Every structure is written in C-alpha cells, then in structure tokens.
Amino acid sequence: MDEAHPIPAKLNLCIAAAQLVALPTLLISAKWADGWWLLAPAVGYALVMNSAYAMLHEAEHGMLHPRRWVNEGLGAV
Question: What is the pLDDT of residue 1?
Fold first, then answer.
C-alpha cells in the first residue's frame, strides 16, 4: 500500500457495519411492503448490496483493512 494513501480502516469498518445492519433491515422491510411500496426496499437493497460487493472485493485484494485476518473475516461475512 502506498504510504501517501493509507487504507482508511476505521471508515471501512464503519461502512461495513452499516451495510451489515442495512441489508437485513431492507430485506425484512420488503416483507411488509405492499404494492408499489415494495420498490423502495428493493431499490435500497440493490444499492447497498452493490456497495457491499465492492467492500468484499476490496477485502479480497487486502485493501479493506491493513490486517489480513480482518480482510478475511469481513470478506467471508
């Protein structure tokens, strides 16, 4: 990693935690949505899952966190 551009480990962990809360929340909220309201949690889930995949991709390349075990753990989750 370039020392001029360190990995923002704390920010990445906060984003990953928010995603881990948002994804099941949106999925569960879709259960109660009826009619066109179903579109809101579905679109939200798609957007959050897309960014969650990006985080998984960064973990796979060891760029999510400076510690390898954190990358492997979050990548697996």
Answer: 58
Give the CA distances from residue 17 to residues 24, 35, 57, 72, 77, in Å, rounded to whole numbers and listed in that order. 12, 30, 16, 15, 11
Tokens of 29: 């909220």
Cα–Cα distance for residue pair 34/39, rounded to 1 Å: 9
Q: Which H or E run includes 71?
A: helix 68-76
Sites in the chain below the pLDDT cut of 70: 1-2
Distances (CA, A) of 32 to 38, 43, 60: 8, 15, 35
Of all residues in the chain, what percent are helix, strand and coil, respectively (each to 5)? 75, 0, 25
Type of residue found at 74: L
